[in-house]
Amino acid sequence: MRLVTGGISHETSTFAPTPTRLSDFEAGFGLFRGQAVIERFRGANSCTGGFIAGAERHGFELVPLLWTFAYPGGLIPRADYDALVRELIDRLTQARAAGPIDGVLLDLHGAMVVEGIDDGDGDLIAAVRRAVGADCPVVATFDLHGNHTQARLDAATAVVGFDTYPHVDMAERGREAADLIVRTIRKEVRPVMALRPLPTFWSAECQVTAHPPMSEAFAFVHEVERRPGVLSVTLSTGFPWADVPQLGASVIAVVDGDAALARATADEVGDWVWQRRQRWQCKPLSVAEALDLGEREGRYPILIADMADNTGGGAPGDSTEVLRTFVERDLRDALLLYLADPDAAKQAHAAAVGRRVVIDLGGKSHPMQGAPVRLEVEVVALSDGRFTYDGPMLAGLTGDLGPSAWLRHKGVNVVVVSGRMQPLDQAFARSLGIDCAAMRYVAVKSAVHFRSGFETVAGSIHNVDAQAIHSHDFARLPYKRRRPLYPVDGVSNA
Fold it and tell me: How confident is the model at residue 321 (pLDDT cuts 50, 70, 90)?
């Protein structure tokens, strides 16, 4: 049995001011070709890592084509996307010329938007389908935050979506996809799919799968998956910062050979979710409200999730409301991770460790990010930005934040970085000499993923909707193309 694997992944914010170019794919989680894909992801918590483990378990040959993932950001220019797809299909064609291909495993995201193509993932799967023909099984894995379409289901044989947020199950879902495609190739099952779109937004802080209410949703999903004939159920909460017609939550049911069962299963889970739609809406706090609440609770460190500037969702990472509030309140043992400001990092490196320098921090990418905060800071530590993750999500994989610095103004500590990445764990802070657990206040530019690496040390956690381009008050966002969605548009039927 001989399978190929590849992936072009991106979570695209159509509100982000900067386009995501080919160079961003190369500089993000990287662009790997051929055997380098196997070397990079063997043993890693990624879907491709799960594909590799599945190949070893089932004894099939896995031919790696191309894998790339750009950090979430703005719209992908058509020429850059076309170049990546062309190379992926060229490598697939070469693999087919070298011998028969029994199946394709694709590691995708589900919220990729390209200039002129609303459904980048569907377009990519369709290109693969054209290359391999109608009868070759194609199974794709998707992030929890896909904006799904019928087009991608029409092109794929089956899809498997994440069950966790933070995404600690990526390798597990890759193994599930590998198991499913092997059973399909052996004709033990014949996957049939149905999609149930749900016209609703889903608040980020209500998506943490380890806690209610989201844990209840996936308990029901897993109950349904245990039924005879059901192969997989994908519950997607959608990605709200992509202004596309398919924006919103959805359910995808994959069953064995029974279109009616697929339809009934997708609708049953979809109805269950829709009937509880008010439970998926959480009102975020202001920065001041979160700090006051944390102080009343008296458990430290108080962890503030600056989710409107979550670089993991494509935000610039340089908003300043949280930093300004920390300074105005004259907090002690306060820490901000990470402020994406290459200019500030460059100034810190020029000043050197131990020196004091006046720097305008943040507020440089977009007016909605707030004005820069001018501070006299001590340069405490410097870094080239390279580190190795040690938390549950990406343990063992390397990251590169570019030239970075630990700056201190009185009791407020700021880690400025040149790259845009959310803090998934404490590894980079630790590499600078920072003990996050010893702080009284820690702010992270993240929505939920930070929990995988910080929840164990946090006294309390509070999501805030500070001033930034990715507001979680969806009524404030300048949508032009999305469909009506609950609760903003008063939708009552799904």
Answer: very high
Quote the DSSP letter at residue 284.
P
Q: 100: number of CA atoms within 13 Å, CB side? A: 7
Higher pLDDT, 283 or 111: 111
- SS3 (DSSP) at 29: coil
Q: Tell if the pTM clears 0.90, that is, is over it.
A: yes
Burial 109-138 (b: 16+ CB within 10 A, else e): bbbbbbeebbbbbbbbbbbbbebbeeebbb
Per-residue pLDDT tens over the stretch 465-480: 999 999 999 998 999 9
Distance separating alpha carbons of residues 293 and 484, to the nearest angstrom: 34
Structure tokens at 205: 């802080």
Q: Is 337 helix (H, G, I), strand (E, B) or coil?
A: strand
Residue 427 has a CB neighbour count (10 Å cut-off) of 18
- Strand segments, DSSP code E, in 368-409 are 373-383, 386-388, 398-400, 404-409
CA-wise closest residue to 195 among 254, 139, 238, 146: 254
| Residue matched to tokens 């369709």 | 126
From first CA to last CA, the distance across the chain in angstroms is 42
CA separation for the pair 236, 161 (Å, rounded): 7
